[in-house]
């Protein structure tokens, strides 16, 4: 396919609206994305070895802390009260970024609690502390070691966002360069979507562990965007205040060792000249603060499964042959149960600035007698046996190993770019993708609770999708859910 590349004058004039169009309707034609087949020699990060001092977190952790019913219903977790602060931190980070199990038939083989773009895991998680004397420290989490490493970075005095009174915050930064060799100009989009999954998971875990201050919303990193990190293709995404009274990293057992560290590949700017311009738009000044978690109990009855257990069993696909669910008889109330749990999960975690602007449309393979497209109230927008065949129109190219006609459910997440830009300005790009990833996370978690796999996707033809299905705006994300065709044997790692 011949691409109509973005010219240098166009790159200088890019704003949020133009980037919405480039990363959506024009992505396949105008952006250089190696995974779409435009590059036969993709660039990969290199690795270097370095000595490091690691502070090891506990691995003797409970397998469960709360049921889904208690978590969504607002019932305090009695089992958490006996956990030390360092054990709570260990559980939080272990369920955000540590390897969880090996799946021989899984697409990325190694399963982690937060789904990632093809198993690439571009997010860096760290804990930041502001002491009473004004000293700022930051520790990066290394999931393979389940340990914290002190950073060597200098910290600007303004880099103290969203701190709790105890002085702690969880930071999420996307290392865009990690996936640039595969996603090219498009790299910031999967990074922001992936961070949305992490934002939702961090909110649920922090709430269940008693670390989330109910009075403080998650806020963007004030004073962090526009720093030297942007030049290194790193995107600060959010900070979550943590109530961690009595926690001190230096009380953890220390280990001096040699670790492998990924290094940004050279010449990314020359290889992908549009990437820096799009990255600059995603790194716009932060938007307004988000909303805190709701204190209202949700009147639903989730299945008898634990919160951590649901995170462990959730998968991002069913096997290495692609996405192809098996057609299975559905009980009449399955759609209502998944939708109710999804609403409950979204209500009890912090919400981003753009979450109220998202528009959701749900496809169900069996809803009141046949395939149906519904809005969030359950009202049918379109129904008929031809509906599953229309889904194939949104696939970006032929030969994709994705059979959408056999999916049990598909969540479409869309946004009105004009309304988003009018309300949030250039920050609407980052905020809307973060919110879309968070909503997709909770839908995937709800599906997992009822025995379905759930696979987030961003590869689609947005114009073709809007032409055949009324999804209410520019599609940002979708989650394909279904029953796996075969068992996927696993082996726990931690």
**CATH homologous superfamily annotation of the largest domain:** NADH Oxidase
Q: How many helices in DSSP terms?
A: 16
Proportion of residues in extended strands: 15-25%
Q: Tally the beta strands.
A: 18
Helix/strand-derived category reads: alpha+beta
**Global morphology:** globular
Total separate domains: 2
Major sheet description = 7 strands, antiparallel
Whole-number mean pLDDT:
85
Gyration radius, in Å: 22 Å
What is the highest CATH level, the class of the largest domain?
A: Alpha Beta
Question: In which range does the helix fraction lie?
Answer: 25-40%
* CATH architecture descriptor of the largest domain: 3-Layer(aba) Sandwich
Might you state the CATH topology name of the largest domain?
NADH Oxidase
List keywords for this structure.
494 residues; alpha+beta; NADH Oxidase; six-stranded antiparallel β-sheet; 21% strand; globular; Nitroreductase domain-containing protein; Nitroreductase-like; oxidoreductase activity
Description:
By secondary structure, this protein is an alpha+beta fold. The chain has two domains: 46-271, NADH Oxidase, CATH 3.40.109.10; 307-492, NADH Oxidase. Helix content is 29%, strand content 21%. The chain has 16 helices and 18 strands. The strands form four sheets. A seven-stranded antiparallel beta sheet has the order 8-7-4-5-6-1-9. A hairpin with a 7-residue loop joins strand 11 and strand 12 (372-374). Helix 5 (85-97) packs antiparallel against helix 7, helix 7 (188-208) packs across helix 15 (428-449) and helix 12 crosses helix 15. The longest helix is centred in the C-terminal third of the chain and has 22 residues, at 428-449.
């Amino acid at each position: 396919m011949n691409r109509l590349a973005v010219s240098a004058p166009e790159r200088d004039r890019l704003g949020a609206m133009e980037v919405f169009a480039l990363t959506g309707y024009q992505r396949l034609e105008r952006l250089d994305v190696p995974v779409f087949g435009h590059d036969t020699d993709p660039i990969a990060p290199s690795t270097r070895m370095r000595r490091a001092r690691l502070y090891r977190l506990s691995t003797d952790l409970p397998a469960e802390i709360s049921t889904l019913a208690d978590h969504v219903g607002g019932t305090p977790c009695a089992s958490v009260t006996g956990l030390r602060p360092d054990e709570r931190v260990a559980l939080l980070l272990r369920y955000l970024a540590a390897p969880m199990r090996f799946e021989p038939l899984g697409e990325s083989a190694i399963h982690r609690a937060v789904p990632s773009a093809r198993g690439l895991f571009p997010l860096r998680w760290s804990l930041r502390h502001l002491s009473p004397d004004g000293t700022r420290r930051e520790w990066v989490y290394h999931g393979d070691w389940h340990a914290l490493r002190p950073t060597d970075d200098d910290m600007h005095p303004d880099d103290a966002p969203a701190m709790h009174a105890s002085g702690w915050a969880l930071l999420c930064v996307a290392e865009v360069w990690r996936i640039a060799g595969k996603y090219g100009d498009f790299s910031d989009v999967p990074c922001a979507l992936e961070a949305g999954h992490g934002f939702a998971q961090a909110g649920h875990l922090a709430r269940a562990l008693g670390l989330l201050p109910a009075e403080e919303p998650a806020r963007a990193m004030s004073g962090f965007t526009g720093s030297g990190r942007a030049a290194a293709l790193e995107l600060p995404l959010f900070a979550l205040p943590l109530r961690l009274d009595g926690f001190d990293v230096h009380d953890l057992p220390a280990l001096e060792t040699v670790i492998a560290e990924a290094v940004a590949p050279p010449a990314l700017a020359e290889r992908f000249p549009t990437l820096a311009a799009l990255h600059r738009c995603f790194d716009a000044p932060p938007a307004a603060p988000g909303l805190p978690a709701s204190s209202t109990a949700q009147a639903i009855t989730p299945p008898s499964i634990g919160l951590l257990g649901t995170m462990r069993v959730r998968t991002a696909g069913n096997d290495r042959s692609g996405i192809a669910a098996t057609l299975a008889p559905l009980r009449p109330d399955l759609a209502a149960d998944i939708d109710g749990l999804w609403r409950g999960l979204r209500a009890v975690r912090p919400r981003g600035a753009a979450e109220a602007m998202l528009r959701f449309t749900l496809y169900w393979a069996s809803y009141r007698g046949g395939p149906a497209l519904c809005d969030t109230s359950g009202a049918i927008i379109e129904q008929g046996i031809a509906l599953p065949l229309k889904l194939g129109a949104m696939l970006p190219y032929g030969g994709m190993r994705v059979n959408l006609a056999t999916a049990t459910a598909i969540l479409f997440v869309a946004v009105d770019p004009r309304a988003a830009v009018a309300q949030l300005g250039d920050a609407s790009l980052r905020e809307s993708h973060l919110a879309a990833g968070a909503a997709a996370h909770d839908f995937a978690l709800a599906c997992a609770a009822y025995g379905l796999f759930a696979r987030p996707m961003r590869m689609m033809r947005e114009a073709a999708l809007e032409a055949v299905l009324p999804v209410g705006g520019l599609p940002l994300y979708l989650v394909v859910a279904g029953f796996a065709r075969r068992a996927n044997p696993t082996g726990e790692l931690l």
